[in-house]
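During the second year of the project, the team shifted from modelling isolated chains to modelling whole assemblies. The rationale, set out in the original proposal, was that interfaces cannot be judged from single-chain predictions alone. As a representative example for this report, we include one of the complexes processed in the last quarter. Its constituent sequences, exactly as entered into the pipeline, are reproduced here:
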Amino acid sequence: MFVLVEMIDTVRIPPWNFQRQLNEAVAEELNKKLANKVVYNVGLCICLYDVTKLEDSYIFPGDGASHTKVHFRYVVFHPFLDEILLGKIKYCSQEGVHVTMGFFDDILIPPESLQQPAKFDEAEQVWLWEYETDEGAHDLYMDQGEDIRFRVTDEIFLDTSPTGPAAAASVEKKEPPYTLIGTICDPGLGLLSWWNS
Amino acid sequence: MEVKNANAAMLSNYEVFKLLTDLKEQRKDSGKNKHSAGQQNLNTIMYETLKYLSKTPSSRQTPEIVREFLTTMMPHKLTKAEKLQLLNHRPQTAVEIQLMVEESEERLSEEQIEELIQMVADVLPGDPEQENAAPADAEIDEAVEQS
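Output from the structure prediction step:
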């Protein structure tokens, strides 16, 4: 679920923080910059793991702050392909089942990856699994807040850097920078209550 | 900013849990500026991730348990990703093992799957009684001789 990512960045320490230990000031700046943010093609950054190398600090003309090149490792949420994850159902829509893990929300299970046959109940806005046994068909509802086990099948990174003013006027929808696509089509996947005997 | 290595190492849920709890303690002690606007993101992600991880079996592990788990898993020739998933999820049924171990029907016999479930239940906490690894080792020896 979590990986360590080695990164290099130049950290700017403003003069009013000069009395602090360099390590602490650098750690705070890095966390301020990266925590809870998605880095393109890397994942959701959680927190700083450690600093591996601090190069010399420089002060440039016109700016009183010091600039230090830092080599560090960051804890990033980036599940690998086919990893099994546990989440909670946030809500269901025509696009599929939206799952959340608390710290990460943009997980979608599209209708074709649900346990088949699946149907969308318009009245209650919930997906259900029409489970057939010898005794007859049971409708297993995928209610909000239920724990769900799913497998990661795809990840989508979107570059959400700001575009020029012309494009910004037309594009109003906010796309999430990092989306996970999952499946619950295998035995053992889906609501935990379905498999706990 | 440059990303030198996007996949330098894999971390188990327990390692991240421990890191975040230690960081929380540290920030509690130094206390003054955690509520400034810049720190809000770190606070949010720490809170949510800790909330998620404390509900998983990984929050009850220790470094010794993880080491013991990896040593007992050695004879089964599982990939790193498979061992990591077993460590994070603590599967209790054969269905869960089949999800996490690829091609488990070909690589593991039913007996070995049962043995795996038993070992996971023994080594990883979630269970109030903890048997030590000695009986599990005896079972591994038997399975190796038979297969």
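The mean pLDDT of chain B is 82. Chain B touches chain A at residues 1-13, 15-16, 19-20, 23, 38-39, 41-42, 44-46, 48-49, 51-52, 56, 81, 85, 88-89, 93, 95-96, 98-100, 102 (CB under 8 Å).
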